[in-house]
Design brief:
- The two termini are about 35 Å apart.
- The protein is built from 10 helices and 9 strands.
- α1 (about 20-25) packs antiparallel against α9 (about 250-265).
- The chain has helices at about 20-25, 35-55, 65-75, 90-100, 120-130, 155-160, 215-220, 230-235, 250-265, 265-290; strands spanning about 60-65, 85, 105-110, 135-140, 170, 190-195, 205-210, 325, 330.
- It has about 325 residues and is an alpha/beta fold.
- Residues about 310-335 have low confidence and may be disordered.
- The strands form 2 sheets. The protein has a 7-stranded mixed β-sheet, sandwiched between helices. It has a two-stranded antiparallel ribbon with strand order 8-9.
- About 35% of the residues lie in helices and about 15% in strands.
């Protein structure tokens, strides 16, 4: 019989390792998710999430992985035949587009080298060409897990504005939220897609969409079918503590503790710590490369993330080189 000793330290792009404080917070009995005690916990969590998202807009949540939040954004905003522009940055950007196609949307991809961030000028040029405003939205991954490329969301917002295009701006922050700077309101993002299992230090299984007033207005006109993901149902109770189905009480226990940990350290301190550790790893890999080792995949720092970065080739089949500190993740990952 195998005997397990010590602490299992899982090294993978996600889920990240869960801090003991979060695990202990989740190790308690269930409570009535319709009662005042749970409502108070949920409202504390949503208030804390707003500080992490840096928004005063509405945040909605689901029992799902980040892929569920992708789907929630699509079905609440669009009608069959609508056209969207996917900004290519790696596997996950294209996978979001594949889901849109499955719902009957017309998907155009703004092609881009997977090793570099997308050019804001290139996006602006494409939007200027769309004089009929056929493109209903621009979909972007902030920090691409598969490539380590970091897209400049503020610059892409400026490109949309410069083109005077009314497209909604949708951003996936699944691997960046709480780990590197993101500012929903300041950067004019209409829908933010997020998950629990990376910077928020929780198990996989809780997903979020932060939605602007423009997005809520678009939801009222959208014709794609939705029930579980329906923002209208979630907003109908006039409280963000409302849940569509049985609320995942234990996730909220963990989220409450994770947000307290984030606020104790401070977001700016977290970002600085990540940058310091990421830069140390980048420098180490560059030296390693001089001895016929792997090279960083994202080639145009600063357009590579501080929480995820890939190396260009594997050392041996299935072997990865990774580093994790205090529940946060930094990895050169061979895709």
């Amino acid at each position: 019989m195998a005997v397990s000793r010590g602490y299992h330290f899982y090294q993978n792009p996600g889920p990240t390792n869960i801090p003991d404080r979060v695990l202990r917070a989740m190790d308690r009995g269930a409570i009535d998710f319709t009662a005042a005690q749970f409502k108070a916990i949920a409202e504390e969590c949503f208030a804390g999430l707003k500080r992490v998202f840096k928004t005063d807009q509405t945040i909605l949540s689901y029992t799902a992985s980040g892929h569920g939040a992708w789907e929630a954004a699509l079905v609440n905003l669009f009608s069959p035949g609508d056209k969207v522009l996917v900004v290519e940055s790696g596997y996950f950007s294209l996978n979001w587009g594949m889901r849109a196609e499955a719902f009957g949307l017309e998907v155009e991809t703004l092609p881009n080298d997977w090793r570099s961030a997308v050019s804001a000028a290139k996006l602006e040029s494409r939007l200027r060409e769309d004089r009929e405003h056929a493109l209903k939205a621009v979909l972007v991954v902030h920090n691409e897990t598969s490539t380590g490329v970091l897209n400049d969301i503020a610059a892409l917002r400026r490109a949309i504005d410069a083109a005077k295009h009314p497209a909604l701006f949708l951003v996936d922050v699944i691997s960046s939220l709480g780990s590197m700077d993101f500012r929903m309101d300041e950067w004019g993002v209409d829908v933010v897609v997020a998950g629990s299992q990376k910077g928020l230090m929780l198990p996989t299984g809780m997903a979020f969409t932060a939605v602007s007033t423009r997005a809520i207005a678009a939801c009222a006109e959208a014709k794609l079918p939705r029930v579980y993901w329906d923002w209208r149902r979630l907003l109908g109770e006039a409280s963000q503590a409302y849940w569509n189905g049985t609320a995942p009480v234990h996730f909220f226990y963990g989220l409450q503790e994770a947000l307290r940990m984030i606020e104790e350290e401070g977001l700016d301190n977290i970002f600085a710590r990540h940058h310091r550790l990421a830069e140390a790893t980048r420098r180490a890999v560059r030296v390693w490369r001089q001895n016929d080792g792997p090279e960083l995949f994202a080639v145009d720092w600063p357009n590579s993330g501080d929480v995820e970065f890939s190396h260009h080739r594997s050392i041996n089949a299935g072997e990865r080189v990774e580093s994790r500190v205090a529940g946060w993740t930094f990895w050169p990952w061979a895709p």
